[in-house]
UniProtKB/TrEMBL annotation:
GO terms for molecular function: transmembrane transporter activity. It is a multi-pass membrane protein. The chain crosses the membrane at residues 12-30, 36-53, 120-144, 156-175, 182-204, 216-233. GO terms for cellular component: membrane. Signal peptide: none annotated. It comes from Allacma fusca. This is Major facilitator superfamily (MFS) profile domain-containing protein.
Length: 246
């Protein structure tokens, strides 16, 4: 439903962060090879679980399986009777009939009402990947090792993942209250500021080891705040908006 779409889409971030936290915790005591073998269990379980995944009401209606569609929608909405979901069934069927009666071409994608939101979603996905998140996640332990913070490298990485997990919950609660745009603006500006601070630390460390030793708190603080900023907007919201685009 529209009122839950943002909240449910944001739960994707929770699962991603749980995966990162799991990898950091287990990876602290395993080799890359063994960590890969342990993590391989998760997609195998998920793949097997998809055999029991019900089809969506829209898909069932598009295939003429009306009775199954009504049962599926009744279950999704928690309705007491099929009569309660009849209005929504009619709306979905009308949408399917309209789509089937019209033909689409590549030219339609260039129309303003389609091109603008599509461009926004594509740019958000680009910024999500090029905002440095993969470099931070994959090299988190190495960053702390090179920074010489005095805290165990693996412990620091686990702390970062725990902060991500907490604020993934916060983001899920805020997305429908604050709105997509403010969260994205806070997220992008916050990530940029944190990366500037982290880059400044390594610049100072390269040129003045003694001065850098007094700033040992800066790398951990920068990465923690970077993760907070990322998980509030840039992480989950592009996926949410991709779903809303459709």
């Amino acid at each position: 439903e529209d009122r839950l779409r943002g909240l449910l889409s944001n739960t994707l971030a929770l699962f991603i962060v749980l995966g990162i936290l799991f990898s950091y915790c287990v990876g602290a005591g395993l080799s890359w090879k063994n960590l890969s073998l342990v993590n391989a269990v998760v997609p195998i379980i998920f793949g097997a679980g998809m055999f029991f995944q019900p089809e969506s009401p829209r898909y069932l209606l598009s295939k003429g399986r009306d009775k199954e569609a009504r049962v599926a929608l009744k279950r999704l909405r928690g309705a007491d009777s099929l009569d309660q979901i009849d209005p929504e069934i009619r709306i979905i069927q009308a949408s399917i009939d309209e789509a089937n009666s019209q033909s689409a071409s590549f030219q339609d994608l260039l129309a303003g009402p389609v091109l603008k939101p599509t461009g926004i979603c594509l740019m958000l996905m680009f910024l999500q990947q090029f905002g440095g998140i993969n470099a931070v996640n994959f090299y988190c332990v190495a960053i702390f090792r090179d920074a010489g913070t005095g805290i165990d490298d693996n412990v620091s990485a686990i702390m970062v993942a725990l902060v991500q997990l907490v604020f993934a919950f916060v983001s899920t609660l805020l997305v429908e209250r604050v709105g997509r745009r403010p969260l994205l603006m806070i997220s992008e500006f916050g990530m940029g500021a944190c990366l500037v601070a982290l880059g400044a630390y390594f610049y100072i460390k390269e040129n003045d080891e003694e001065k850098a030793s007094s700033l040992g708190w800066l790398p951990l603080t920068s990465l923690l705040l970077y993760m907070v900023a990322y998980i509030l907007g840039s992480g989950p919201l592009p996926w949410t908006l991709m779903g809303e685009l459709l």
